[in-house]
């Protein structure tokens, strides 16, 4: 089933006619590239079996409305986060924002901040240490404010929570106790994390798909602006089983598809001489392939024709499986609507016993050990 249909850029009369009939028609534009329009056509949750098949094949799993009334329940916090991003976009200080949000936190202590990191997009980082009960449990936890793109015409912002040095080596080296404190840092600063963490239907789906204890870490808040968004990429990082992206306010357009089907489509459309060549070319993109993936309305239409186009509204999530470098969901995002939106993206990791129960409302609500059978 298709979540959204695609219209080419040169169909203004059709767009007007659909809108006159009350249909939502979203212009897909990103940093000057006109990719046509998206028309949502279906918003049905997949059955657990269908979701399992898609997950196993490294295809995205679209879960419309899975967050229920969570975004409405946290409307005040969500609006507060949106106003914060507006201030940050106008040059405001992340440190000042965090001082207001968690300056009085009983466990998290400010340990420093920095401006402009090695990446051109980085704006500011705020570091804290965790001192529950007066003993230091984790150090060097940070929140990094950054532009989404190097192109400054895209005013999209994001805040990423992590710890230690940049890069996946650090994730691998970190204990689950540290990861848990990073997750608590995000949840204390932005209580609307609970929309995702305390969403029982989403958590049940994740538990069934993963079949093992998991944690939702390496959290990123996205404030995608209209005409902005991430170009095609994947999130296959060592230890990361996938990503759950949840729209809390506003709308984003998505192209998302498993790498193997993406490679087959590039070959089918004549952009690569073989599927194997396309698989390798995706790993090491040249300018021509990058333009096909990110600036070509014709290829966007081909993707949409294969069910790879999605429109995420507030309350929707999309799961992006990451089994390996070749079995992974590739995806790109387009900010829709009239103003910046809010979404949370969490990496999915296997959870070890040292993950603090307090970091996950599901664990905090459930006894961690069961009595042996009589
Ligand atoms: Fe991603």
What would your notes on this structure say?
With 374 residues, this protein is α+β, with helices and mostly antiparallel strands. The protein has one domain (28-35, 45-364): Jelly Rolls. 33% of the residues lie in helices and 28% in strands. It is built from 14 helices and 15 strands. The protein has helices at residues 12-20, 48-56, 70-73, 75-89, 94-102, 168-173, 176-189, 194-197, 200-210, 259-268, 275-283, 287-295, 297-305, 361-364, and strands at residues 4-7, 26-30, 33-40, 61-63, 108-115, 122-130, 138-147, 157-163, 214-223, 240-249, 252-258, 309-312, 317-321, 329-335, 342-350. Strand 6 and strand 7 form a beta hairpin. Bound molecules: fe (ii) ion.
Summarize the structure.
The protein has 374 residues and is α+β, with helices and mostly antiparallel strands. The chain has helices at 12-20, 48-56, 70-73, 75-89, 94-102, 168-173, 176-189, 194-197, 200-210, 259-268, 275-283, 287-295, 297-305, 361-364, and strands at residues 4-7, 26-30, 33-40, 61-63, 108-115, 122-130, 138-147, 157-163, 214-223, 240-249, 252-258, 309-312, 317-321, 329-335, 342-350. Helix 10 (259-268) packs across helix 11 (275-283).
